[in-house]
Protein 1
Amino acid sequence: MEDTRVEEICQAAGVTKGTFYFHFAHKEDILLEMGVETATLLNDTADRCVRSDRSLDDSLRMMLNALARNIKSTPPAAVSRALAEFRRPHRAPVSYQGPAFAEAFEKVFAKAQEKGEVTENIEPGEMSQILEALVVDSIMEWSHGRLGRLNQALYRRAAIVTAGLHPDVTLPS
């Protein structure tokens, strides 16, 4: 990505430089757009799960499957670079205008809380931030070649989080 020129991107995409710059101020903005598309896919899947009244486990499995399919369709180096671009404090807040992974997780955690599947002692937003951090870490590990099976890592980490959210578990304040 670092050595890729805008001209090369335009040639590969079959567009002019003018068209490229109409849509993107910088070549790194393509990486942000990849993140927007991925987060939108995750949020759309969460909306479908909530509307169809799926269980938390089923919802998370569907969401994580969709996420993993999307992530694995992109070269790992591009995934790693996109995550790094989101973490750049001076760019991400200004450029990124899409949904977050945590928003998607919050929807299904709120629904699960209504149904009594998770504790009422933790806000769905906090649950979702914890899972988002684990998911993003898993994606980064996969993109660096340290995780062979992204789906399996995502399921396991989500299961660890949800086990601690069971309504019968007493959590420290």
Protein 2
Amino acid sequence: MDEVTVVVPAYNEADRIGPIVRELVQTYSVLVVDDGSTDNTPSKAHAAGATVVQQPQNRGYIAALRRGFREATSELIVTFDADGEHRPRDIETLIQPIKQDRLDLVLGARATIPRPSERFLNKLTRLKIDVEDSGTGLRALRRTLAVDLDLDTACTCGTFVLEAAAKGARIGEVPIETRTVQKPRGIAWQHGKQFFHVLRYLLLS
């Protein structure tokens, strides 16, 4: 069994997924969860060396994460965005505190968080947990924790770490650098719903 599985949720990333997977498979087992893509994301990922599981239709990022957590068999899981923003070399730094049994969930904290709505959700989350980037896509966690998460919210901002903390996880973060990626950034409408999910965790956990 591989020590680390990198779970990559992907939707219509045919132009990016191949180089990302080729970087990752040099060191890690890679599981791409294709979220009902209408392009050839699955075949590009498979050709680059990833194991690919396919959602029957586009169900969203959180559903893809849950599928990846169920399918992964490694003791450690790393989540990695399919747009190429993250650097594979940061993974080793993330997994060390878990391998040393100091933490159960490690976040890759970005220097800059682009969306104001995400920064606001981070401020709310810090009322409970002292982390700077609760919505990062680069995380390392134990599989036992991953499969225990409900992830029943609009997105992962804030609530991923709040739910993990409510389940007793030891949580920390390490700084990471991101790569510039040319991609459209629409309005994150789900952050409006996510505000109420974060409040729910703050009040009930």
Protein 3
Amino acid sequence: MLDRWMLARLAGPVDRLARALVRRGVSADAVTLAGAAVGLAGSAVLAAGGSAGMALALMALGRLADGLDGAVARHTATTPRGAFLDIALDFLFYASVPLAFALRDPTANALAAAVLLAAFIGTGSTFLAYAIQAERLGLRSTRYPHKGFHYLGGLTEGTETLACFAAMCLWPSAFAVLAWGFAGLCLITIVTRLAAGWALPSSGAPR
């Protein structure tokens, strides 16, 4: 819901940083991989019972790289591999955070983490299934024209997810409450994406 608003405000600084990286010969894939490694390191810190503040800082750096890789690619060359890495590693990072909190305190967090992971499977699968059919039908997203494939929005997009993760890191004892609440918001996203998929043309793309 907030991604387009956030991306518009970050576009200028991100583009300037991307240009600087391109001048130094840094590739978009390198930025993607580095960002994923840093973000997953933040989850590992959480899982090991380390500082939630340090984990949040690492996650923030990882997400900055996630915004940079696309800008770097637009100044060099966009590739199917880059688009694949971007979304696949994003989903792995998103899954790692609830898992980390479950490992950090299984008694208090495991059930809520499992519910949130199930909600993430729902939002991710409906997102990717719609993108596949949109590609087959030749549909293009007007909201996110620079993405590597069709982006279908929802109530819980990347910005909302990261805000939730930040709150979890700042108040780790409230993880279960935050996880249950965000899973409920994800359910709304799942329903709206299922409705969007149902509204796709009934012919023109094979099953």
Protein 4
Amino acid sequence: MLTPLARTALLDAMFKRFLICGLLLGFAASAQPAPATAKAPVWLVLGDSLSAAYGIPQSAGWVSLLQQRLAERGYRAQVINASVSGETTAGGLTRLPALLEHHHPDVVLIELGGNDGLRALPIARLRDNLQQLVSLSRKAGATPVLFEMMLPPNYGEEYVSAFTASFHQIAKLDRLALVPFLLAPIAADRDAFQADGIHPIAASEPKVLDAVWPTLEPLARR
């Protein structure tokens, strides 16, 4: 049987042993790297008034609806809308470098060209601008996606045909996903548009989203 002095010495030794073990375990735990939190992929929308929700609340536009649908389907992508009404491919080229540097997007949705066509920009210039937008996005490590654009027939059959063909040619050349013309599902319905006959009303925006979703969802799955 241990004497009081021996029992005190034993308890003191055990305490020191537990203290040392605790310190070692705490050090080991602190040395382990903290579990990484996966960053949500960033989708940057570089568009014109069709993506900027012109004439309607921002929350009703197809870009905001895209963010909602991605979340509802369990996709963690963060959608940043950098669209500006009246934007051209040249304007997009001016703004894109700063947007890429600031947001570091994983995907760049290029919905530009419509205003170039309405101003009868030479087709060669349109193609060059689109090509540069694609190249800048890729150099920044992002996946570019091109949106097909169309013009009314009164711009002349030759120009209209060459204009739309430009988007298909660049998509094929650079192996890009090409989103079909986003207004195609509502183009024949005059009531689907605002008074200007160009921009969709809020109630039409879900149909616009449905038009682009089949091309965009595979990107979210990645």
